[in-house]
Model the fold of this input.
Amino acid sequence: MKKRSDGIYFLTERYAPIEDFLPIDTSRPIELDLGCGDGDFAAQLAARYPERTILAADLLLGRIRKVRNKSEQRNLPNLKPLRAESRLLISRMIPDGMLDRVHLLCPDPWPKDRHSFRRLNSSDIMMHFARILKPGGVFHFSSDDAPYFEFTVRNLEGSGLFAPADKAAIADIADLKSDFERQWIEAGRTVVHTAWRKL
Ligand SMILES: C[S@@+](CC[C@H](N)C(=O)[O-])C[C@H]1O[C@@H](n2cnc3c(N)ncnc32)[C@H](O)[C@@H]1O
Done:
């Protein structure tokens, strides 16, 4: 939001397809790690599947710099660091049906009632996840927070746009852990994963 000299407040972000600034070969599989943090999961995924493009997005520039460093140091040209706000990215920048898989791993659960409006997985956002996925594309979510996990599953079911996916949908990456998942496991907490297929 910017304030112009004539006193009008206006939203500067307009629809700007990601391909306007980042050339993406859409003939290759494309996956998105949304709120990727320091990007360890995305880097492992990119290393495992060099033929896939892995978009790794986070709001914090410092974290995205770490993703960029991983991409350079591990020679992963298919790992694309994006500094972007999640809602804007999925609602305004990613074209319909571009992605094979979206990973939303251990997002902030905002457990307090007064903060719950900040949760990403509100019912309306499911429409965008469905929009940006290919038919049959997979939405992969994990959390250590049981109420947030249940809230997300409720919204996925309620959307009518997804069905529970079979284990094969994320079996190829079951051994990969994000930075936060590792931290929670070390702290003795349990991280639960779920995968949903776009109808
Ligand atoms: C709890 S961390 C999880 C990071 C990573 N997915 C993992 O599992 O290690 C949540 C991440 O989401 C990012 N984030 C929070 N709100 C965001 C938003 N609105 N847009 C983009 N990233 C956001 C934070 O900067 C942080 O890196």
Observations:
- DSSP finds seven helices and nine strands in the chain.
- The first helix runs from residue 40 to 48.
